[in-house]
Design brief:
transport, membrane
């Protein structure tokens, strides 16, 4: 069995190369920005003084800082929109190579921002990093899903979540003041994402284009076969080639679908709902809010300020370990159970956390219970929703629909992140600990949706998954399901 697993070593190597320049960049950008906050704000003040001979007022400085943090999601949204066209026109591999150049430019802007005495360069750099992350994350998932055998597809696409977790921890570690979180080092800390971009640019040149893209989009049977033989080291590819042939016939003569097609076509309605509610909406399950709230809870438990950062690294590491566990479970337990019950347990735990936060002054041990509950929620999140929300979208759509579907999921994800980032502070002020109840409602709703409606996709081919969803899409017209095999994409 182990030799069977080892035959895919080139595929694992590809997942490593894609991860480093793909979702790792997302993790590192999200967590890294917290540590140089003070230094960047004083730099904004310094450049303001040079230009206007007066210090910047507190609220303007805070606004500029908030925007430096939030502009990442706007850039990522722009990147996600292009993930519908770039990888279709130029191929998955070239799209990623172009994407790495964007990150390298962003890193150079960061390095020279202090020399040029311009905080606008930091803003532009963050926007470009966002673009890199938005495009990179979508293409990373497409590339991996289209290069993996169906029995490994869940595990392979889940490696993207592992790299996000790894990126978060790395960002927190290099951001501590003993390493790069100093007054001197902050431009280099912000430029650190240039290194993975260079690494991916150089190593990706040695890998083939995604086999399914070559076969289904380009009609290059020979190239696709070569790519599969090289990646899987297998001569007997008949089943995989038949599956791709079947999918190509299903979408014969069709161009890649537009976003409008995905939003209006009846034949992908339930796939779209599954993509939007439990997967792309993962921002609304409250995990970012938890990270935000964690420091307040640590403070109340009497954790000294200078130790906070290490506890935050602990939270990041917990998420990373549980996502890694999830990658071994996903092809055994299946997507549906992991995500459905994951959301259910998250909802219950956050209910308990809300109650405990309300009565925290009654007893001195309650704040410690709250720390435990935070770690519980993060464990459940890592084991279920976090990983599955990355793996499931790769299962839901056929080749012609996939790029546009990723545009939609990227849009929901990044705009959700932007809104949560900009508004969450105000919500906490207004609602206090009861802000978690909004997330509890979302978690219960997603859980019910997942467990009642969504069919299991574990171990099925793309065409079989489509047939399962057609039972939902055409519930009222069962007879039509028979016909859709012939003219699948023309039915609305």
């Amino acid at each position: 069995m182990s030799s069977k697993k080892l035959q895919y070593w080139r595929l694992y190597l590809l997942s490593l190369v894609l991860g480093i320049g793909g979702s790792f960049q997302y993790g590192i950008q999200v967590s890294l920005i917290a540590s140089p906050a003070v230094h960047v704000q004083s730099f904004v003040n310094y450049t303001w003084m040079l230009r206007y001979d007066a210090p910047v007022d507190e609220s303007t400085n805070q606004l500029i800082w908030s925007f430096i943090v939030a502009v990442l999601s706007l850039g990522a949204w722009a990147g996600a929109i292009h993930s519908g066209s770039l990888p279709v026109t130029y191929g998955r591999k070239k799209a990623l190579l172009i994407n790495n150049v964007v990150a390298i430019v962003a890193a150079l802007l960061m390095v020279f921002s202090r020399m040029a005495k311009s905080f606008e360069m930091i803003l532009l750099g963050r926007f470009l990093y966002g673009y890199n992350v938005g495009l990179g994350l979508s293409v990373h998932l497409m590339y991996l899903g289209e290069s993996s055998p169906k029995k490994l597809r869940g595990f392979m696409t889940l490696t993207s979540s592992i790299f996000i977790g790894f990126g978060k921890v790395m960002g927190q570690i290099i951001g501590i003041k003993e390493i790069m979180g100093t007054e001197e080092m902050w431009p280099y800390l912000l430029a650190v994402s240039g290194i993975p971009a260079v690494l991916q640019f150089v190593t990706l040149l040695f890998f083939p284009e995604a086999p399914r893209y070559l076969y289904i989009d380009k009609g290059d049977t020979e190239g696709s076969k070569k790519a599969l033989e090289w990646l899987w080291q297998e001569d007997n590819l008949k089943m995989e080639m038949d599956d791709m042939q079947k999918e190509r016939e299903t979408t014969q003569g069709e161009k890649a679908k537009t976003v409008k097609d995905v939003l209006t076509s009846r034949c992908v309605r339930w796939q779209l709902l599954t993509l939007a509610i439990p997967c792309a909406g993962v921002q609304f399950c409250g995990i970012n809010a938890l990270y935000f709230y964690a420091f307040d809870i640590f403070r109340e438990s009497g954790v000294p300020e200078d130790q906070m950062h290490y506890l935050a690294i602990g939270i990041g590491a917990t998420e990373l370990i549980t996502i890694t566990l999830c990658s071994f479970l996903i092809d055994r337990a299946g997507r549906k159970k992991l995500m459905g019950y994951g959301y259910l347990l998250m909802g219950v735990t956050m209910c308990v956390l809300t109650i405990m936060l309300s009565i925290k002054d009654l007893n001195s041990w309650i704040p410690y219970v709250n720390i435990g509950l935070i770690f519980c929620v993060i464990c459940i999140y890592g084991l279920g929703p976090s990983g599955v929300s990355m793996a499931l979208p790769a299962d839901l759509f056929l080749q012609a629909w996939r790029p546009s579907a990723f545009v939609i999921s990227g849009t929901i994800n990044w705009l959700g992140m932007f809104l949560v980032g900009m508004l969450f502070g105000y919500v906490v002020e207004g609602l206090g600990q009861f802000c978690f109840l909004i997330f509890v409602a979302y978690s219960f709703f997603s859980s019910a949706f997942m467990l009642y409606f969504v069919p299991e996709t574990k171990g099925k081919t793309m065409v079989e998954i489509m047939e399962d969803f057609n039972k939902l899409n055409y519930k009222t017209r069962v007879a039509d399901v028979e016909e859709t095999d012939d003219d699948y994409a023309t039915k609305f």
